[in-house]
What does this fold into?
Amino acid sequence: MAPLPISSIRVGKIDDVQELIKSKPNKVPERFIREANERGVLVSHKTHLHHHIPVVDLSKLSKPHTDDDFLFEILKLSQACEDWGFFQVINHGIEVGVVEDIEKVAKEFFEMPLEEKKKYPMEPGTVQGYGQAFIFSEDQKLDWCNMFALGVHPPSIRNPKLWPSKPARFSENLEGYSKEIRKLCKRLLKYIAISLDLKEERFEEMFGEAVQAVRMNYYPPCSRPDLVMGLSPHSDGSALTVLQQSKNSCVGLQILKDNTWVPVLPLPNALVINIGDTVEVLTNGKYKSVEHRAVTNRERERLTIVTFYAPNYEVKIEPMGELVDDETNPCKYRSYNHGDYSYHYVSNKLQGKKSLDFAKILN
Ligand code: OGA
Ligand code: NI
It folds into this structure.
């Protein structure tokens, strides 16, 4: 979440998509229209009936480690991480009220008048506040999305001026939600360590005071979803990402699997988890971050609340010794500070998995 020098960046005019559809519901400005090969056609769900991202039941992972249910679910988790980089978790133990409360204030936030939201602007080159992130030039195409992003933990990454006073319970609900999601991430990293035959605390011990940020993405309906993109294809720079789709959300998230964009069908009370670039490096590519994007819908809006969980900026990242073997599985990534990767990630536009070139050892 490190800010860039603002003065050097010219981003041109960025239309607020919610305002656009209020004033001209059928118009899609040129800056949102993608090249033909970049457009986000919505794939029919039927063609993907056999192509679901895995579902992991966390209640089974609370059982004793010798229990068959536990062992089966760990196997499922390891396959999900290895083959998909994405899975949904059910029975995650976070109370429905907590999930509903954050969704409510997020929705209310985006529904406020633009003048109110503009009190918390995302300045060019920064990634916190309200607006569009990852825009670095005047001719860069824009996503059909409004974002509101905040650093949450540790307190040093917070920008208190950007925490909104309205809706009234926004900060309180976000605090409560973030605590729960943090616990979930710690839990998931334990299971992921077990699935890799590592010591349970392996990630936790390495991560130090983990960095946690949240981004709320609001995708208004678009009269021409075939021409625009909700969120450009990218992988996440985090270790893990937790994505909550609003209740009764339409399909919007797609992941790239075997060169096909596969939709992630929302499941009631489930959270979508994905492996970020950092876990890809730490596992020497055994568990990979997967490219994903969001498409829009002609009639319906969509809201997602996304938490990025990552090591402390000071932490040195490199493939873990246990997962490297000079003979059979040589080291594929160099070592670096997580803060440097984070800075690299936010100072470049979203472009598939390109950010990871930063860490790859090319031979
Ligand atoms: C993200 C992301 C997808 C979505 O915020 O990194 O991938 O469906 N969001 O909002
Ligand atoms: Ni993402």
